[in-house]
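Deliverable D4.2, example record:
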Amino acid sequence: MPNLGVAPKGPGAEVPNLGVAPEGPGAEVPNLGVAPREAPAQAPAIEGWRFLAAGKVRDVYELDNDQADGQSDQLLVVTTDRISAYDYILPTPIPDKGKVLTALSVWWMDQFGEIAPNHLISLEVPEVVKGRAMIVQRLAMFQVECVARGYLTGSGLKEYQATGRVTGIELPAGLQDGDRLPQPIFTPATKAEVGQHDENVPFDYVVTQLGQEAAAQLRDLTMRLYAKAHDIALERGLILADTKFEFGADPASGQITLGDEVLTPDSSRYWDTKTYQPGGPQPSFDKQYLRDWLTHQSAWDKASPPPPLPEEVVAQTRARYIEAYQTLTGQVFA
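Output generated by the structure prediction step:
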């Protein structure tokens, strides 16, 4: 989600070295890919809310309450049906994707109450975005992607093959694509601008940006959340290979709070236990089907605007998102 942080406020509420500047009148909103308050063509006008920013998938609004400082404590986060691949937003939406991601995020947040508070305030949202939006607490977001890996794949595999390490963490020799790691590891990444790649960084980099205490807290929360989520997913026949969390500071108390999306197929890699076989790429419950089509069948050069998606690719991608939701929650998506 775009960074929309504010500085903590209230008696004694100090959170040093957040790595984010507070917003104020005329302040810039970084990492959005669009100018602040410039709505994309498909972003609806919503009574009582004013458009604030857009990311690859989410549109963000703030409460239109005419506060003197131009800010509100609440945000309306709308998860659209947009889908991205290879750092491009594709021209064809995936029907119901926004509803699936919102429902799954809410379900996961319900599982974590004893570990970390979250930013969710209410699901009572305007009718035009009902089912794909939530009202959340505005946070001062930490400028780091908190990534947990329990299995070796993706960018972690590439880094391991080149150096034997992942973000400076030495791993045993001889690991293959898809292997389970001896223990899960915290492999943070920088937050890139829309259209740019996130960059894996060592834990020491997070310390230099946020301070030792905040960095350690983020690492601890990330690994505790991953451990619980991995166990829950495994009980349901899925392997949570890796995931990323985003955290911010509550503006009133300074308490570290879970924000953004949580353990969706867009932010996580889920594999089926029945087909899991280390030694190569694993089929996953996300947009991999779409990515494979773009790479192997579309003739797209990944430098020009991406092509429209065929109906079959849209349908198969939608089905994977819904299957992930139903498998994890045990609920029928409707």
